[in-house]
Amino acid sequence: MPTLDVVTTGNRKAGSVDLDPAIFEAPVRPHLFHAEVRRQLAKRRSGTHSTKNRAAVSGGGIKPWKQKGTGRARQGTIRAPQWAGGGVVFGPVPRSYEHASPKKARRAALCGALSHQLREGNIKVVDEIGLSEYKTKQVAKLLRDLSLADAPVLIVTATEDAFLERSSRNLPNVNVLRVAGLNVYDVLRHRRLLLTKAAVAAIGERLRDQRAEASP
Questions:
Q1: What pLDDT digit, counting tens, does each position of 144-171 carry?
Q2: How far apart are CA 195 and CA 15, in angstroms?
Q3: How many CB atoms lie within 10 A of CB 33?
């Protein structure tokens, strides 16, 4: 069973925590990372692009000129696509890019991402982060004390922490997520992960629940 040292906000050892091998020693499958990140980014697309076809553009209620005798090509309406200001052929319309992915695959991808970060030595566990006010300087000092100020950091908390979340907004390359929103894309795009001790337990509970739901 893998273990990690638990440190204080001053980077002093305060014990250790056991990690669930089913979550933090899972197989690393890059094709699942690709599929899950693609699904997440597709879901985030607004899909609000829109064009007008010949039925939606204005004007062109009558035939521009008579069918024969003008020497010009016959035309039925100025709404036709070949006219300037005419309708667009097969243009994009509002749509959703979201697509489904099996729960087992999504869980395996997240476990694989956490396992990869652990193998690379990119996960640090802190006993607790006890901010008592909205203060960006305190978060910056915390990251410096934990030697995490030189890389993109994802801070994971078990529940809502308004002081931490709002105090981290102005720090570049620092993001805060609750365990409920932990995902493959954010785990992989940050070089370092800072987990609270409570978050480690919450991750185990969340992924064990998903495993129970996915099992027949």
A1: 999 998 899 999 999 999 999 999 999 9
A2: 14
A3: 20
pLDDT recorded at residue 130:
82
- Degrees to nearest 5, angle at CA 158 with 152 and 163: 70
| Strand-pair category, 13-18 with 123-126 | unpaired
Residue 140 CA: distances (Å) to CA of 17, 35, 129, 143, 152: 25, 34, 12, 5, 12
Helix (H, G, I), strand (E, B) or coil at 76: coil
Exposure string of 104-124, with b = 16+ CB inside 10 Å and e = fewer, is ebbbbbbbbbbbbbbeeebbb
Report pLDDT for 83: 93
Gap between the Cα atoms of 117 and 191, Å rounded: 8
User: What is the DSSP pairing of strand 192-196 with strand 13-18?
Assistant: unpaired
Nearest to 138 by CA among 6, 10, 5, 7: 10
pLDDT the model gives residue 59 = 86
Residue (of 163, 177, 174) closest to 131 by Cα position: 163
Domains of the chain in start order, with CATH, are 3-45+99-214 (3.40.1370.10), 51-91 (no CATH)
pLDDT value of residue 208 = 83
pTM of the model: 0.83
- CA atoms of 196 and 210, how far apart (whole Å): 21
Residue 44 CA to residue 30 CA, distance in Å, equals 21
